[in-house]
Structures are given as C-alpha cells and as structure tokens.
Amino acid sequence: MTTPSIELKPSSHPLSDAERDAILASPGFGRHFTDHMVVIKWTEGRGWHDAELVPYAPLSIDPANMTLHYAQEIFEGLKAYRHPDGSVALFRPEANARRFQASARRLAMPELPVDLFVAACDAIVRQDEAWVPAHGGEESLYLRPFMIASEVGLGVRPASEYLFLVIASPAGAYFPGGVKPVSIWLSEDRVRAVPGGMGDAKTGGNYAASLLAQAEAAAKGCDQVAYLDAVEHTWVEELGGMNLYFVYEDRIVTPTLTGSLLAGITRDSLLKLAGDLGYTSEEGRVSIDQWQADSESGALKEVFACGTAAVITPVGTVKSARGEWQQSGGEPGEVTLKLRKALLDIQTGKAADAHGWTHPVA
Ligand SMILES: *Cc1c(COP(=O)(O)O)cnc(C)c1O
Hints:
Blueprint: E1 7-8, H1 17-24, E2 36-43, E3 47-55, H2 66-70, E4 73-75, E5 78-82, E6 88-91, H3 93-106, H4 114-127, E7 140-149, E8 161-171, E9 182-187, H5 204-219, E10 224-227, E11 243-248, E12 252-255, H6 265-276, E13 281-284, H7 288-297, E14 300-307, E15 311-320, E16 323-326, H8 334-347, E17 358-360
Parallel strand pairs: 1-3, 9-10, 9-15, 12-13
Antiparallel strand pairs: 2-3, 2-8, 4-7, 5-6, 5-7, 6-17, 7-8, 11-12, 11-14, 14-15, 15-16
Helix pairs in contact: 3-4
The structure holds pyridoxal-5'-phosphate.
C-alpha cells in the first residue's frame, strides 16, 4: 500500500476578499472555517485512498454511523503562523502526526502515515493561505485534523472504514486585552481519565468526560478544572485541555506522563525551551497538599497551564472543597511571561528556531 498524494479540487466560489477580511478582523476561536477541507479515506484491505482537498462542506452521515454510537474519534490541534517575511509556518506538525498515530492505536483505528498527515496540513494551509492572519500579533490559522469511523452498523468492534479530515479556522489572540490569569476549580471527586484508560489519547470522549466538571467549575465562578489522579485523588494531573507547570525558585516542574494525562506538544517544547533560558526543568509529581502548602508558604512562585490554543495561561485563583488560595497574588508571573514570549517568538518567526520546530509551508 503506497501513500496517496492529495488531489486538489479547489472551490469555484471561495469567500470574497472583503468577506474573509471581515472575519479575520475578529475571528474568535472555532467559529469560522476556511473555504476548503482535506478528506482521506481508509478501507480495510485497501489502506488510505482517495486523498482530496475539496470545498468545505457538510458530511452526509448515516444514522447508524459507528462513531455516533461508540465514539471512535480522535483529533489534533496545531497552528499556522505568519512570519515577518510573509511566509507561513506550522509548529511541530510531525509531533502532532506521531501523537495522532498513538491516539489511533489506543482507539483501535488505523494509523495515518506521518508524511500524509503533514502533507494534508500543508495542502490546506497552502490553499487557504489568505486565511492566515497577518504577522504582528498572536493570531493564527488553527488546524483541526480528525478521524472518525465511517462504517454503518451497530455491532461493537473496530470499524472497517474511516475518514480522516483536516479543517481550518482562523483564531484570534487568546488574551486580546493582555495576558490574564485563569481561575481553577480543583476537582477532588470527578476524574477525566484512569490508568489503563484513554487519557493519553486525544479523543473526544475525554472531553465529554470533562464537561460536567467544567460546568460545575463555571458554577463556582472558575474558568477551568484541574484534575487529580483517579486512584489516590492526590496527584495533580492536568486541566483536561492544557498541561500544568509549577514554577519554584530553582526549577520548573510539570507532572510526569503517567498514561492518564495527555502528552502536550507545548508541554514538551517548554521542557526544552526552559533549559535554553537557563531554568532547570523537570517532570515530577506534585500533590494537591503540596500545591496548597507551597503556594501559601511562597515556595511555589508561579503556576501556569499550556496548550496550543492559549500557548501559556497563568493560573491565578485556585478553589477547591478544601478552600481557596491565590497564586502569585493573582498576577501573571515573570517566568510564565518570559516562557510565553520565548515560545511565541519562535512560533511567529520573531526569534531564531534552534530546535527545528517550525515547518515552512507557504
Ligand atoms: C491537546 C491537549 C493538551 C495540550 O496539548 P498541546 O499539544 O500542547 O496542544 C493537553 N491536554 C489535553 C487533554 C489535550 O487534549
């Protein structure tokens, strides 16, 4: 089975420049989609085939489509940024491609070759390049590659047919009014993932599992939920869509990948970038007791969350059944802001990329 090349069948009626510019003036997040999408099919015995870039359009789904019933679905998220010379680059797409393969294995889905994943991302960015916001701010074109089962039937087993798609959506700055700390509800009873489960796969099911806790957090006036491990209800894991970092005087620590948290590419990049900036960065375990005690004693200087969407988000207020405390006086920390700028400067092409993370597209 050979890797198919992507046939370009562009739209004959893309949005006008004026319509697109109106969207790009205030894109928000995930509200508007570009003129195209990539679709690649997989069939048992045949492999990947019929790779196409086509006009963005609704899918026709049979009511007995297996994904609708048994949730075989995985996704990725990555951004294309406009660089100062007008070119466009993706950030570490091969890392997303490899994680997509790992997610596919966990959900008994076929693995898309890394080069085909990257070619699909390149194809939509090239075709819809005019949708990549101008250089200067934090705006980007967000890509959402995903895979669903396309077989029809209610028998419970891995499907024998799948669709891989990439859609693209312009994304505004996450903090248009300047970086502000988020408030966290620390959930001590609800969990999002268990050892042996699928917490380390990027699958919609993990998000479905998190929505009730997220709604409870909102009812307590918090922006995000922090989850603890599912066995001891002791060890801090992640936010359910972002990984966490704890900034001490002499080191920065992020929770070890135990299998029930997602291996964020932002998290991985920061482990390396922190070293470049002269910080000691490490993986380790942080308990909820330690978080509270170190925050209150001042030993824990800063806490931040990280992920593709927000890059880095400072953590301010933390609320839980055991009480409430303020991290860093509710202000964004100095290390947090320094790391945020260093990473964004590489992503947007303002700073040299010593790690070979940026992938030129157009
Ligand atoms: C995508 C995701 C993250 C962040 O990963 P990045 O690769 O940095 O965007 C963290 N946690 C979960 C559960 C995720 O799905």
